[in-house]
Structure formats: C-alpha cells, structure tokens
Amino acid sequence: MPRADDFTRRHIGPDPQQIAKMLETLGLESMDHLIEQTIPESIRSSQPFRLPEALDENRLNKLTRQIAAKNTAAISMIGMGYHGTVTPPVIRRNVMENPDWYTAYTPYQPEVSQARLEVLITFQQMITDLTGMELANASLLDEATAAAEAMMMARRVGKNKSNRFFVDGDCLPQTIAVVKTRAIPMGIEVVVGDLDALKQGQYFAGLFQYPGTSGLIQDFKTEIETLKANGALIIMAADPLALTQLTPPAELGADIAVGSTQRFGVPMGFGGPHAAYFATHEKYKRSIPGRLIGVAIDSAGRPAYRMALQTREQHIRRDKANSNICTSQVLLAVMATFYAQYHGPEGLDRIAKSVNRLTRALAEGLKEIGFDIVHQEFFDTIIVRTPGRADYYVDKAEQARYNLRKVDSDHVGMTLDETLNREKIEGLVQVFAGSTPERVSGIIFDRDLPPSIPESFHRTSEYLTHPNFHLYRSETEFMRYLRKTASKDITLARSMIPLGSCTMKLNAASEMEGISNPLFAHIHPFAPAKHTGGYHQIIDELDNLLCQLTGFARFSFQPNAGSQGEYTGLLCIRALHHSQGEAHRNVCLIPSSAHGTNPASAVMAGMKVVVVKCDSDGNIDLDDFREKAEFNSDNLAATMVTYPSTHGVFEESIKTICDIVHQHGGQVYMDGANMNAMVGICRPAEIGADVMHLNLHKTFAIPHGGGGPGMGPIGVGEHLIPFLPDHPVVSCNNHGSSPLGTISAAPWGSPLILLISWAYIRLLGTYGQKRSTQVAILNANYMAHRLDPHYPVVYRGANEMVAHECVVNLAPLKESSGITVEDVAKRLVDYGFHAPTMSWPVPDSLMIEPTESESLAEIDRFCDALIKIRQEIRDIEEGKASQENNLLKNAPHSYHLLVQDEWEFPYTRQQAFFPTREMRENKYWPPVGRVDNVYGDRHLVCTCPPLSDYEDSPPQQDAA
After folding, report:
1. H helices of 616-701, where?
2. Contact 291, 708 (CB under 8 A)
3. 656-666, pLDDT tens digit by residue?
4. DSSP state of 208
5. What is the rounded CA–CA span in Å between residue 884 and residue 920?
6. Number of C-beta neighbours around residue 161 at 10 A
7. Which helix (H) or strand (E) holds 305?
8. Per residue in 587-605, is it b (16+ CB within 10 Å) or e — as a string?
C-alpha cells in the first residue's frame, strides 16, 4: 500500500544515509541542529504548522478528478479575449507534458538554450507577419498587461507630451481596467469613449480593439488620422486568428500591436497562463518592453540565437528600467508557435474561414427566426438584440450547455471558435427558436452567405512564408522536429540547474497531471460561478494553505509573475496610505543588493526609491537604514526587503528593520524569492512583513517553462485585504469595492497552474514541507563546504552558515589568470551543467542553489566539475596553459569542433569534450560555441534567418 510520506521521499533528493553523511561532514548532530545554527531563533515560528494530512499520489489523483467534476466544460461562446481551442495531441504530449520543455530556465545562457530561442524567434516572426510590424518581443503576460505596457512605451517615445491616453469603448473591459490601474500612479489620465471624446483635447496615444469586444470590425481611419495629426501613437489590440483574414494593424497605421496568442492551441484554463504578443516598428527597438530574441553568431561564426538589448535590464538600469518585466510566458509562446507551424498558413486560413462561416451561418439563422443582429461587419462575434430578455436567453442557453455573454439587459453576445461545428450551431439556433424551423435547419450552412468582413479590410499581404511554417506537415516529421529541437537545451530532465534565487526544483509528474484534465483546461474565466466550483475549491484551499504557511490573512492570485506581485503589493500599500489621508507617503527604502525588479516596480507604483547601503557582510546597513527612515519619516511609504537576503543569509536584524519601518508609519514589503528557505519553519507575517509575494514557480514547484509561466500571488495582513486587486467582469475581492483596480486580464491570474502548487502542498503535508526546507539548507551548506577551499564563499550567517544558497567569489581569478566568471560558466557547459546565477548580487561571483530535490550524487558531480575547472585555472596561473588560448576561454566546445580535420588547440579533444568519465556515457553536446553578444547587438536581427544562413560557410565577423 502507498504511504503518505512516499512522495516526500521521492521529492527530496538525498536519502537518509546521504543526509547523515552531509550532516557529519558539516559537524552537525541532526537536522534540528542544522536549523538552530542557520536560522535565528527570533524568527522561527513558535506556532505549529497545521496542514492537511499528506496524500500519496494515487489519492491525490483521485481527489483531483473529484474536484474537477465540480467544473462544467460547457460550450463556451463568451469570447471577450478567450476562445476554445484544440491543442494538437502531438504538441500536448511532446511539449506541454514534456519536461524537456517545461523544466527549462530563462535563456540567459544562450549556448544551452538554443531550442527555446529558436522557437521564440519563430514566435517573433509569426507575430511580425500577422501584424505587419517590423519587430516583436518574445511574449508578455497577457493581452491586458501588454496593452498597459504599450501605453507606457508610447508615453516614453511619443512626440505628444500630453498626459492623456485615449481608449476606444469597444476594447476588452479587463484591458480597460488594467490600463486604468497602471495609469493612475504614473499621473496618466485615461479617457474611454468614441470619436467625440477623441476630439476633446490632446492625447499622447490611443488604443483600439480589432475586431472590437462587440465583434464589430470598425474603420478607425478618422480616429487614427485625428491622433496622428497631433503626433500621437496608435496602439491596436488585435486577434491573431482574425489577422489571417483582416488587413494587418501596421497597414492601417498602427505604431504598436498587442494581443493574446491563447487561441493558437493554448487551453483557456480559467484565464491562463497565456502568451501575449507585442509588436512595433524597428525604430522603437530600444524601448520595447520585455525580452527580444536576436540572431548573433558563435565563436566559429555560425548563426546562434540570444536574448538581445534588454537582457536583464532591470539589474543594469534598476529604477530607470523600461518596465519591471522579469517573467514572460515562454512555454505558452512555444506552444502557440508550434501550433502555427503545425497548421501552417493554409491551416490557419482554413480555421479562420471556418470560424467566420459558422458565425455568418449563426447570424443568418437567428435573423430568419426574427432576431436582429447589431453589427453586420464581424469575424467571429455577433451581438443579438433581445429587448429586456437577455437574462432569459442566457439562462436558457446555459441549460442547453451553452455559455453566452450577457452584454446588457437587451443584448446577448456570441463568439465562435475552432471547437464549434455545424451541429452545435444548429443547437444554439434551436435554443433561441424553441424548435428549429425546417427552413433554417441545415439549409443555412449549404447556401451562399452574405460576407461579414468588409472588402476594404480583406487581407492581401502574405504571412508565415518562412520555411519554418512549411517544413513539418506530417506528424512523423513534426514529432522528430520537436525532439531534435528539445535536445539542444539543458533542462532539469538532463541535470541540476543550480541557479541561486531561482530555485529550480523538481516539478513532479503527479503535480502536473491535473492541467491536462479537460474539466480544468477548457473553462472560460468568465464562466458562470455554478460551472466553476472545482476551480474555486482549489483556489480557496490554496489560499488557506499558503496563509497557514506564511501567517498572512489572505492571498490574491491575480499577479502573473513575481515582478507583478511586487507591483501589486506596493499598490496595496499605496492604496492604504491614500485611504488614511496620507497620499504624500511615497518613499520606498530599497537595499542596494535588491533584485532589479524591486526599484523598477516601486517606480511603476508611483514611489520614490531611496537606496540603503549594505555592509561588508552583505547585510542591510542598519545605521544607514535607520538614518534614512528617520529622514524620510513623514513620507515613508514602504521598504522592500528580500528574506533570506539576496546574499543567501538569514540577517539577524530583520525584525529590527520591520520595527523601524512601522515606527515611521511605513509598511514592509517582503520579496518572497527565497521563501524556499523558510517554509514550515518561519512565517513571514510573524517576522513583521505586511505584504509578500510568493514565486510559485520557485518555492511551490510550478515549472519555469523556459522563462514562464510564473505566478506571483501576494499575501497580506488583515489590514490590507480591502486593497487587494479586483476585476471588472468577475469580482474576486470585496464584491467590487477594492480601490486598487485590476492587475491582470483574468480574475485569478493563471488558475490552471495553481493546481500544481496545490498538489505540491497536499502531497508533502506538514512534515514534507519542513523536511524540504531543511534539506534545501543542508544541501546548500554542504556545497558551500566543498567549494569554499577552491572558490571562497563570500557571505555567511552568524554561525558561518548559509541559507538555501551560497555566493562564491571568482574575482581573484581574473587577476591571477585572466579567467572571468563567464569563462567558468561556459566551461561548465562542457561538463553538462547549466551555470549558476552569474555576477549577481555580487560582481564576479556565482550564486549557487542546489534545492532539496537534488541527490548527493548530483551535488557532488557539480562540485567535482567546479573543482576540476579550478585546477584548469590553476594550470593557467602556473603557466602550464596559455592565458589566451585555453579550455575556459574557448568554452563551450560545440560538436562542430569534434569533426573538424584540424585540431588547432593546445589541449586534447578528450580534455575539451570529455573532462570526466561521466561525460563519455552521457554527453551533452552544445549546439553552438560561445555566442558573440556584441555582434548580436550591433547587427540586430529579430526574425527567422533564411535557411541559407545555416550552410557551411559562416558569415564574416566584424574586423573590429
């Protein structure tokens, strides 16, 4: 029989004997002794953690199915930016359910990320083709936040210096709400209306929905001309499937195009996760938010991909950054791209034409039984007049398992998608008719139907012409393409990814099973509450579980990323101060060691950043903190602190810091990036935090997905509950009374992946949560102990212990050997490892986090690799190896070098490719050599290169 602790034993890498060995190595008597030496007693919770009994995987699976049965997967025709879609099984099985795709990290190390980078640049090609723009980024969180980012970019780059932003009234209501929320702290006035409102004064930009929420394909020619005449920019939110039939935004005069790629094979999932797109003109390339993938070359001059221009810009520009974006939706962008490659332009055209024809047939059928259709120009959405009877028809349709949109008491909206067919449309007509008249049934589908897309809006330009969208038509070829591509990356399916602060831990298959269940996958975020009981049970239970683990009173799941959680938490604090008549409180104290998104988020929330020094031990300088809190006492709004610190240490002064802030009228925002060192042992609310975001994709096992999805829900104290975000369509806080506004497109962010964290906590239970934290700290200290003689550990706590990660110093190596931290990172690739976090928070350092899910054997293998690399560096220091031409400077060694006739290096092939015996048996072959970042930025190409670029003759490098 399965035991409740079976999953805990499988989740935790080291077995009891390995744990005992590590404790002995560190001179510790027990796990309790480890925690006593590591975590200050003052912050350890004295109250027991009371989680439900741990479940074994079979019981969890059964419970998940029972909860899913409380959802109703009706025929969803609500629309409003969310559509039913068909995920091709080959994509679902080989991508969405494949750890080679979902366990990858953000592609900051391009040499081991060529698979994702290749698909993301294809995503960018897809978007530029569909929108007609010259440049697209590698996805954003959702359509609403993409529109908000477009507003902010337009303000930065536009010529009109007005502070007014126009929004057409037919935009999605959730988009309007998010734009308004983002605008308020930045002093932007949002005007929602029509052409008459547009003529009243100056605007720096305008936002239009194409087609509109009502389904109307509107000619915005006059509006666009009016705005452009005053130097304003044009933003269009466009449906990508509709763009296969409609004139692209760029051809209509748009400067920025945004939208969601959800309907390209990504399930609705009650609202997410989904990848938004953002496209614009080449001239704005240095202002585009988020990640941009470009084509560069490697050390041999061969084409290679990398993140361009904005790579980690928050760490460089901090409070001057273009945005606080850290997470994108890579896995979902990858799925949408593969969907487009699977179908090709012909397939997308066929789907779009089918959806439009069914919509026209529905409109004609309803007309013939006496109903009036409001708009005659539409793609997939119609509005039906039902004077005073909208509720009646929506309820009647619901009884027949159709979910329609109630526009108002007189109108009902219907949106069609690729999951609908002739039979379902006939059934809906019957709902409205009572019984389908013979003259309507069947006949409307077989005759010529009046067109619904005005001829002037017919698309004439080609799209998806690149070979990438034409090469993989048979499933055999497509399956092989997916496997070949995935093999280019290092993921958790291949080896540990020891990234400090990013907690790349096991994403167990049993936790992931629920997301493929149709009763979770195919639920519309605005479906009737009676149809979403299963989701609400999961959300409510996860809220209670996280409150039990953190000590907070309530969680909001709306933030779709850690950076968005930061922003949301600061807006809660801002709203609290405003409600107390203290709107002048706008100063935020942030340590110099903070993650770059912290100051960027503070600026977005309308706060003034005051930087606090750190002392020589990496801790917050308490004297400087106290001095700056006192100096800004009248205006102090908040502090942002990461705990344990970004240096991997439990700072003894954390409670004092919280007390100082509270004494001066401020609130404490705690960054939850390092929560993996506290679960089951400390409660942040008891330490003194008022609000905290949790990275569910770190601590609570949601996969990173190659750079997204992420989740950054915030927990708050009782006093901040009224200020949590709400939603204009489905209220998720205080019945619509929250003054904060709306953060994301969907009420609960990305609920589909909340199933993973819920399952993670239910499987581990109280004992498993605490044990995981203990082992995470044990693994980190064991690793620090092994590495310290070779790479000094920079920061330690009071008893010479680290938390769940350690920072090792490589700065002296540069002086003694000319070897940089980047050289070490690239050489690790030859040993089959992804590099740790480089040069942050300390320059010329590696921040290493093994997590609890790595075994002692894997930890030793990684330590052995670093120690062997140290010997390779020592050979350089001692003159045994060249300072310019050596194993590290030339790393990584791609497979191309192995097959060259001439070997021009002063070391052997064995030293380059097989530095350990294990590499002979399980070799990772990097697909490219070291990527030339400078070349990539000088020659910025962000669309798919022609296939000829991959022929044997490499491009010429700059003479410089």
Report:
1. 622-631, 654-663, 684-687
2. no
3. 999 999 999 99
4. E
5. 27
6. 9
7. strand 303-308
8. bbbbbebbbbbbbbbbbbb
CB atoms within 10 A of CB 523: 28
What angle, 0 to 180 degrees and rounded to 10, lies between the N-to-C axes of helices 821-830 and 856-877? 120
And the tokens for 429?
Answer: 């007509």
Instruction: Look at residue 323 in the predicted model and tell me its pLDDT.
Output: 67
Helix H or strand E segment including 549? helix 533-550
Do residues 546 and 713 make contact, with C-beta atoms less than 8 angstroms apart?
yes
User: What is residue 455's predicted lDDT score, i.e. its pLDDT?
Assistant: 95
Is the Cβ–Cβ distance between 807 and 794 less than 8 Å? yes
Residue 402 DSSP one-character state: E
Residues 6+ apart with CB under 8 A from 31: 19, 23, 771, 774, 778
Helix axes 330-368, 422-433, angle to 10 degrees: 50
How many whole angstroms from its chain centre is CA 207?
24
Do residues 156 and 283 lie in contact, with contact meaning Cβ atoms separated by under 8 Å?
A: no
Distance CA 912, CA 886 (A): 9
pLDDT at residue number 857: 97
Evaluate whether 547 touches 555 at the Cβ level (below 8 Å).
yes
Q: How many CA atoms lie within 13 A of 790 on its CB side?
A: 19
Find all residues with CB under 8 Å of 596, minimum gap 6, and list them.
Answer: 312, 313, 314, 315, 316, 317, 318, 321
Q: Beta strands of 101-155 (E only): which ranges?
A: 135-136
Q: What are phi and psi of 375, to 5 degrees?
A: -115, 140
Provide the pLDDT for residue 2.
Answer: 55
Distance CA 73, CA 402 (A): 10
Q: What is d(CA 775, CA 41) in angstroms, rounded to the nearest whole number? A: 18
In this structure, the strands spanning 714-716 and 554-556 are: antiparallel
C-beta atoms surrounding 718 within 10 Å: 10
Q: CB count, 10 Å around CB of 723?
A: 26
The reported pLDDT for the residue numbered 820 is 97
Cβ proximity of 915 and 868 under 8 Å: yes
Specify the 3-state DSSP secondary structure of 573. Answer: helix
What is 347-383 written as a DSSP string?
A: HHHHHHHHHHHHHHHHHHHHHHTTPEES-S-BSSEEE
CB 413 within 8 A of CB 407: yes
State the pairing for strand pair 587-591/691-694: unpaired
3-class state of residue 597 by DSSP:
helix
Q: What is the pLDDT of residue 955?
A: 41
Q: Are 338 and 471 in contact (CB under 8 A)?
A: no
If residue 910 lies in a helix (H) or strand (E), which one and from where to where? Answer: helix 909-913
In the predicted model, residues of the chain with pLDDT beneath 50 are 312-313, 439, 952-960
Q: Contact, 770 vs 51, CB < 8 A? A: no
Distances (CA, A) of 309 to 285, 743, 936: 8, 27, 9
Query: What are the backbone angles phi and psi of residue 260, rounded to the nearest 5°?
Result: -115, 140
**Which residues are registered as beta bridge partners of 411?**
385, 408
CB 61 within 8 Å of CB 513: yes
Structure tokens at 636: 């102090």
Phi, psi of 757 (to 5 degrees): -70, -35
Residues 6 or more apart whose CB falls under 8 angstroms from that of 413 comprise: 78, 79, 214, 215, 381, 382, 383, 384, 404, 405, 406, 407
Number of CB atoms found within 10 A of residue 719's CB: 12
Q: Look up residue 108 and give its DSSP letter.
A: T
Enumerate residues 6+ apart whose C-beta is below 8 A from 728: 173, 174, 176, 177, 742
pLDDT at 734: 67
Question: With 0-12 CB in 10 A as exposed, 13-18 as middle and 19+ as buried, what is 217?
Answer: buried
d(CA 216, CA 373): 11
